[in-house]
Amino acid sequence: MDADPQQADNNTTENESTVRPSRMTRQQVLTLMSMASVNFSSMICYSILGPFFPNEAIKKGASQTTVGLIFGCYAVCNLIGSLVLGKYIVQIGAKFMLVAGLFVSSGCTIMFGLLDRAPAGPAFITLCFIVRSVDAVGFAAAMTSSFALTAKIFPNNVATVLGSLEIFTGLGLILGPPVGGWFYQSFGYEVPFMLLGCFLLVMVPFNIYILPSIDAVPSKDSFFRLLTHFKIVLICYAIFTLSAGLGFLDATLSLFAIEKFKLTPGYVGLIMLGLSLPYCLASPLMGYFTDKYPATRRWFMVMGGIITALGFCLLGPAPFLHIPSQLWLLVLMLGLIGFSLGMTAIPTFPEIITCAYQNGFEEGLSTLGMVSGLFGAVWSMGMFYGPIVGGLITQHLSFEWAAVVQAGLGFLAAFLLAIYYACEGPQRKRVPDDTRQTDESTPLLNE
């Protein structure tokens, strides 16, 4: 008689454990709304430059290399900001950091729209560097806190949630180039920046209202301890190759398409859809699959790197392939690169978090902030390298050879990860990860 109530209690507990994770708390819903707005508004303001700014800057007296440096300085300041803000996210406060970052980015976007009134030459170039540098710090604050909060509030489904949020990142990347190119072509240089800067400014009170506050305790761990693990270093290099490729395309693709195929900035913006749309579609699928089957993360990263390398080789195409450059092939390869970016990028963040926890890092916002800061810093390193080195190679050789260099970086990352995972073998246990998820889900859902 006593066994039946116990069995009923056990069944109830099991049912609750299976049902509860599918029910999102109010805090989780509000966080999703906030992160989606941050991803969309930030990326649409970032991607607006691609179709027309390089050409506009050249008219103002900047060289191809200088245009690459303007894109690159953004990445350097983002790198520094990500490391510093990721380390002190607990002391500053994740919510305040995110809202302040949005406010700074909105002001810089509006100011960037006024730069066409600056005199051509050194004055214009100097102001570009200053505004882009400050904007980079604001962007670093918003994205570092965004990643950390997402991982904190959704500990069991990091890749799924990040992949779903990348839909809004992809929408920002998708809408930015064509909207920017169309407004530039129709109304001139200032209007795109004014509209999107004001849109970003509206996101500030919206996020103040809906974003939940999270208290946390500072950790004694450091970035240097994270980088003592070879696996994390390899994953960071893979992240670097992805952002380097994107930075290279930001600085050079529009000029290549305009010169090679005689396209207008508006059509260049449409071509860039070939990169962002597949990434937008692939990210949530990859996130869900890699959360459900964590063992597949490693091979998604490897296969994604190989496909990315293939895409860059055929983007130009590579001179040694002796294939004529055609517009349909360019768009097709951009789509292939966009899809492979989703395969590679989405698993990297949860893989670093899992590795950190397995090696004794404290579970909480402080560690997540450091992982977010490290991710942002490495991404920024690639965004610095890509435009500058890609611009130099394009200027002295050609766009086709610069794309080949990017292909080599991606293939090397995939090759090194494949060797490491093959040596590590399937026998490495992931029990600590599962235990961590069970422990974190309980207090979160109770809250």
Quickly describe the structure:
With 447 residues, this protein is an all-alpha fold. It has helices at 3-19, 26-47, 53-59, 64-87, 89-92, 94-112, 122-153, 158-187, 190-210, 223-226, 230-261, 265-271, 273-292, 297-313, 327-358, 365-396, 399-424, 431-446.
Number of helices: 18
Strand content: under 5%
Helical content (DSSP H or I, runs of 4+) = over 70%
User: Mean pLDDT, rounded to whole units?
Assistant: 76
Taking all Cα atoms into account, the compactness measure Rg is 22 Å
What this model shows, in words?
This protein is mainly α. The chain has helices spanning 3-19, 26-47, 53-59, 64-87, 89-92, 94-112, 122-153, 158-187, 190-210, 223-226, 230-261, 265-271, 273-292, 297-313, 327-358, 365-396, 399-424, 431-446. The model is unreliable at 5-21 and 427-447 (pLDDT under 50).
How does the SSE layout of this entry go?
Blueprint: H1 3-19, H2 26-47, H3 53-59, H4 64-87, H5 89-92, H6 94-112, H7 122-153, H8 158-187, H9 190-210, H10 223-226, H11 230-261, H12 265-271, H13 273-292, H14 297-313, H15 327-358, H16 365-396, H17 399-424, H18 431-446
Helix pairs in contact: 2-7, 2-8, 2-9, 4-7, 4-11, 4-16, 6-7, 6-9, 7-16, 8-9, 8-12, 8-13, 8-15, 11-15, 11-16, 11-17, 13-15, 14-15, 14-17, 15-16, 16-17
